Amino acid sequence: MIAGIVLAGGRATRMGGGDKALLPFGGRPLLAHVLARVGPQVGAVAISANGDPARFAGFGLPVLADPVAGFPGPLAGVLAGMDWAHGLGAEAVLCVAGDTPFLPVDLVARLSEAGAFALAASASDGRMRQHPTVGLWPVRLREALREALARGENKVGRFAAEHGAVAVPFDALPDPFFNINTPDDLRAAEALL
Question: Is 132 within 8 Å of 111 (Cβ atoms)?
Fold first, then answer.
């Protein structure tokens, strides 16, 4: 089984703070769009976010806090997802960002074809860009990730490269991994919607 984790625990400083995933987007919270894309592709899905989990109660999903103190970034959310997925007996975790509403509907299938550890990449802007927070992460790496976080590792791409992740290109317009970081990004995404 493949489980899914939506990373929704960022500080959203460029957006003025708060929960980007709960911003209104096309008449629904941004997170609802992400879940609509991811949910049908995985056996179970959870949200990675620190703070009061009640703010996500309307989604009826587990909310996982970072298992590492000090807000170390998205790798801690990946580890939370791996620990949760391990408890479910899942072999891998589809990890996505909570601010990416245009994710491919065949994301899991395409990443699975590439192997046990695959990260998404896109070339829609004329150059190949990896999206290390969007990927299929093998649960067997959870202890290696826990150790890396304990050593202070906080770079998703570096950890992934050190553990043999392969990039899977997705060519589409708009960029299927367009993420919303600023108010201008939100307006641009609304126009694309």
Answer: no
User: Which DSSP helix (H) or strand (E) runs through 186?
Assistant: helix 183-192
Return the SS3 of 143.
helix
Q: What is the pLDDT of residues 142-180, one digit of tens each?
A: 999 999 999 999 999 899 999 999 988 887 777 888 888
**Helix (H) and strand (E) counts for the chain?**
6, 9
Provide the CATH number for the domain around residue 101: 3.90.550.10
Which residue segment(s) compose the domain that 7 sits in? 2-192
* Predicted structure pTM score: 0.91
How many domains is the chain built from?
1
Grade residue 10 by pLDDT with cuts at 50, 70 and 90: low
Question: How is residue 66 written in tokens?
Answer: 């970072």
